[in-house]
TrEMBL record:
<feature type="binding site">
    <location>
        <begin position="76"/>
        <end position="79"/>
    </location>
    <ligand>
        <name>NADP(+)</name>
    </ligand>
</feature>
<comment type="function">
    <text>Catalyzes the reduction of 1-pyrroline-5-carboxylate (PCA) to L-proline.</text>
</comment>
<dbReference type="InterPro" id="IPR028939">
    <property type="entry name" value="P5C_Rdtase_cat_N"/>
</dbReference>
<feature type="binding site">
    <location>
        <begin position="15"/>
        <end position="20"/>
    </location>
    <ligand>
        <name>NADP(+)</name>
    </ligand>
</feature>
<keyword id="KW-0963">Cytoplasm</keyword>
<dbReference type="GO" id="GO:0055129">
    <property type="term" value="P:L-proline biosynthetic process"/>
</dbReference>
<dbReference type="GO" id="GO:0004735">
    <property type="term" value="F:pyrroline-5-carboxylate reductase activity"/>
</dbReference>
<feature type="domain" description="Pyrroline-5-carboxylate reductase catalytic N-terminal">
    <location>
        <begin position="11"/>
        <end position="104"/>
    </location>
</feature>
<dbReference type="GO" id="GO:0005737">
    <property type="term" value="C:cytoplasm"/>
</dbReference>
<dbReference type="InterPro" id="IPR036291">
    <property type="entry name" value="NAD(P)-bd_dom_sf"/>
</dbReference>
<keyword id="KW-0028">Amino-acid biosynthesis</keyword>
<feature type="domain" description="Pyrroline-5-carboxylate reductase dimerisation">
    <location>
        <begin position="167"/>
        <end position="270"/>
    </location>
</feature>
<dbReference type="Pfam" id="PF14748">
    <property type="entry name" value="P5CR_dimer"/>
</dbReference>
<protein>
    <recommendedName>
        <fullName>Pyrroline-5-carboxylate reductase</fullName>
        <ecNumber>1.5.1.2</ecNumber>
    </recommendedName>
</protein>
<dbReference type="InterPro" id="IPR008927">
    <property type="entry name" value="6-PGluconate_DH-like_C_sf"/>
</dbReference>
<comment type="similarity">
    <text>Belongs to the pyrroline-5-carboxylate reductase family.</text>
</comment>
<dbReference type="InterPro" id="IPR029036">
    <property type="entry name" value="P5CR_dimer"/>
</dbReference>
Length: 277
């Protein structure tokens, strides 16, 4: 995570004030962006109250002309509601940089809805909530280097990032790191259940599972060795890991897992087709 000083940063408007918007707002405030530089449009009253309690930000129930002061507009609405939200905002944000986190919605659609080509698409993930996000970014050719840097500064308050060269690669990022935390939680649930079935208290089983994920991730990141090498080092001949991995191979878990990720990528593309312009 970068430690950029954001005290001189421009005003940023968020369209949609739910999970992902909150993760980014939290990152920006932690790094010193004054709250009066953040605007949020959020139609759901309980969520507006949450934003007030969590960040001391007064969110607007609907777009209005005050959005014209924002130099960056972050789109954090569901793909299904993007077109409708864009229609209400377009007239107020002709000259802003637009940063969309919506899954699947292509920048061609966004440019058409907003009448503006200055668009960066981002695919973050929920560990952004604790400053450990992983985000893929794509910039349209019309986006300047300075605007790319601005997008990078915003996203880097939530964790790490990578730029992709082709917009279609964002669908792969969505299937991998965007949806990825859910895969990890799915495995954590299964490991907790197995631990409990084998006689461990459920809480202790979860603690062991979480610690194993974070420890193995740290080892993979710091050792510089391939996951397959690290896996082999755990797998003693005729031992327990071998027994577990043979069971997984028999059930072709890897093929099923890879198939699941392809399903996520297909869904990202379908969201773009279904809800894009
Ligand atoms: N959650 C995740 O792990 C990730 C999500 N994303 C993407 O982020 C985007 C937002 O997801 P997430 O934060 O989880 O969703 P949320 O539902 O938490 O947030 C979206 C918010 O937008 C509000 N909203 C609906 N219509 C409008 C409108 N016209 N103008 C302004 N706000 C509106 C919603 O209100 P209401 O509830 O009343 O509809 C809701 O509070 C999605 O496009 C998703 O694809 C990207 C990466 C990861
Ligand atoms: O499930 C979704 O559609 C969003 C995009 C990536 C994670 N959540």
């Amino acid at each position: 995570m970068s430690t950029t000083d954001l005290s001189q940063f421009p005003t940023i408007a968020f369209i949609g004030g739910g999970n992902m918007a909150s993760a980014i707002i939290g990152g920006l405030i932690r790094q010193g962006l004054p709250k009066d530089r953040i605007q949020v449009v959020e139609p759901y009253e309980p969520q507006r109250q949450t934003l007030q309690q969590q960040f001391g930000i007064h969110a607007l129930p609907a777009a209005d002309s005050s959005l014209a002061q924002a130099q960056v507009v972050v789109w954090a609405v569901k793909p299904q509601t993007f077109a409708q939200a864009a229609a209400a905002v377009a007239d107020h944000s002709r000259h802003a940089l637009h940063l969309s986190v919506a899954a699947g919605i292509r920048s061609d659609s966004i440019a058409q809805w907003l009448g503006n080509d200055q668009i960066v698409r981002a695919m973050p993930n929920t560990p952004a909530l604790v400053g450990q996000g992983m985000t893929g970014l794509f910039a349209r050719p019309q986006v300047s280097a300075a605007q790319q840097q601005l997008a990078e500064q915003i996203i880097s308050t939530t964790g790490q990032l990578v730029w992709v060269q082709q917009e279609s690669q964002l669908d792969a990022v969505t299937a991998l790191s965007g949806s990825g935390p859910a895969y990890v939680f799915y495995f954590l649930e299964a490991m907790q259940q197995a631990g409990a079935e084998m006689g461990l208290p459920a809480e202790q089983a979860l603690q062991l599972a979480i610690g194993t994920f974070s420890g193995a991730s740290a080892l993979a990141a710091q050792s510089g060795e391939a996951p397959a090498v690290l896996r082999e080092r755990v797998t003693s001949k005729g031992g327990t890991t071998f027994a577990a991995l043979e069971h997984m191979r028999g059930a072709d878990i890897a093929a099923h897992f890879i198939g699941a990720m392809h399903a996520a990528e297909r869904r990202a593309k379908a969201l773009g087709d279904e809800f894009g312009g």
